[in-house]
Amino acid sequence: MTFVVQGLPVARGIAIGRAVLVASSRVEVVHDFIEPEQVLAELARLRTARDAVAAELQRMQREMPKDAPPELTALLDVHLLLLQDETIGAGVRQWITQRHYNAEWALVTQLEVLVRQFDEMQDEYLRERKADLEQVVERVLRRLKGVAPLAAMAAPRARAQDEPLVLVAHDLSPADMLQFKKSVFAGFVTDVGGKTSHTAIVARSMDIPAVVGARAASDLVRQDDWVIIDGDAGVMIVDPTPIIRDEYAYKQRQGELERGRLARLAHTPAVTLDGERVELLANIEQPDDAAAALAVGAVGVGLFRSEFLFMGRSGKLPDEEEQYQAYRRAAEAMHGMPVTIRTIDIGADKPLDDRRESTHLNPALGLRAIRWSLSEPAMFLTQLRALLRAAAHGQVHILIPMLAHASEIRQTLELLAQARAQIDARGQVHGAVKLGAMIEVPAAALSVKMFLRHFDFLSIGTNDLTQYTLAIDRADDAVAHLYDPLHPAVLQLVAGTIAAARAQGKGVTVCGEMAGDPQMTRLLLGMGLRSFSMHPSQILTVKQELLRADAGQLVPWAQAVLASDEPAALLAPHDP
After folding, report:
1. By CB count within 10 A, which of 8, 333, 522, 565 is most buried?
2. Is 574 a catalytic residue?
3. Distance CA 331, CA 326 (A)
C-alpha cells in the first residue's frame, strides 16, 4: 500500500529506487560490573578499540577519492578529533575505574552526559553535531563487540543489484557515507537530522536528493521496497503505484534537464533584464570549499565561517600560524576574488571545551560571538593577526558577528589596530582589509547609521535576525512554527538596512537562508539588494531567478509587500 513519510528537504531533486535499509544502527550494550583487578584490562580493551577506529578513519582519509566532496574530509577530521577528545576519554575512564562499569557501559554513559550538553545548545548547526559524537561512539562500540560497520552491512546488497538504490537509515556517519560508492545510491533518507546535519551537507555537495528528519522512516520501510525521494518537497513515497512512479520519473527527467540548463549559467554574468549587476557569493566552511564555489560561478566568498578551526580541540585553540595558513589557502583558492571571513562565532551556547558555565539560562543571549571574543582579547588578537597576514595573499574582508553597542565597535577597532602594530613590530607582511559588521541583532538594524560610520560594509544574517526579532527559538518544537522570515518586522529591518547602506554608498550583503531561497530573490532585488551570499548549491537557481527579473519594475511590488500585514500572501511568483 502506498504511503507518504514527511521529512525535511535538504538536497533538491527526485530519486527512485529500491530501498537499502540500514536502520538497525544501534549496538546493544550489556551493562556489567567488572572486578577491580579487571580495570586495567578493560581500559586496554577500550584503548585498542579506539585506536582501531582512528586507524580506520585515517586510512579512509589517505584513500579519499579525488572527486570526493570536501565536506567529507572535514567531517572525518571532526570524527578523529572527537575520538581523541580528552573530555570524552577522561569521562569514560572515570566510569571504568571508579564505578567499575564495563567499557561499553562506560562509553554510552559518558555519551548520555555529553548529549545532554549538546541538546542545551541554541545554535542549530552545533546542536546537530551531537550526531557526530553519537556516530564516533557507535564505531567504537562496534569494534568492542566485533560487529561489522554499517557500510559493510549494506554493501553486499548494493553490489548485488543493477536496479537504482536509495538508502534508508536512522542516521549515517561521514565514514559510512564515504564507503558507499558515489554511484551506488541515488538518494538518502534518514530518521534524524536537520538542514545543517552532516548527511544534508554531504548530500548537497554530492548533488544527491535527500530527505532528513523523516522520523520513523526506517521502521516503516522494508528492504527492497520501491521508494521515491522528493528532495524538493521533503517527502518519501513508499511502495508507489505504477502511475505515481511514472509521474515522478517524468519529474526526474525534467529535473535533470533543468540542472543541465542551470549548469550552463555558471559563467553567465549575473545581470537583471534592466542591466542591474548582482553579486552572487558563496558561504563556505573550510578552504577546500572554494572549488565548489568557483565551479558554479561565485564571484567571491561572502561568508567563511572560521569556527571549524576551533571546534573539537579539547580547549587547545589553533595558534596564529595554523589560522594564517587556513585563511591564506582560502584567499589563494579564490584567485583574487573577495573572501569575507567571519571572526569566531562561538560562546556560551557553543562551548569549545568543558568550561561550560551552568548559569546560562538563555545562552543565545549570553556571552557569544563578538562578546566572547572581546572577553578573550589574547585569542581575538591571535585571530586578527592571522587574518591580516592572510590579506597579503588575496582580497580578505573581516566580518564581525553580533555587534550591538558602540563600545563593542570601539573595542574591536582598537584591537584591530593593536594587531596591525604587533605584526609591524615583528617585521611581518600584512595586507589591507575591509571591515564589515553583521546585522543580526535588532538593535544593530535599528542603529545601522552608527554602524555605517565605522564599517566598510554590512552583512545581514537573516537567520539570527529573525530569531531575535521574533523572540523565537527555532530549536524549540513548541514555538518553531512561529519562526517566520516573512514577518513584517523582519522584512522592515532587512529593507531598512539595505536602504541605509545604499544611501551611504556602502556594500550590503544578505548571507542567511533568505539569500539562497529563490522565492525570496525578487523581493530582495526589489528592496535594492545587489549582493547575495549562499551555499554554492543554491547559486545557479538564484541566478536563474535574477536573470529573468526586471529590478526596477520590482520596486513598487516590493514596497507593497513591505506594507502588507501578511507579506507571504503577496509572495507568489511575480511578473511585474
Report:
1. 522
2. no
3. 9
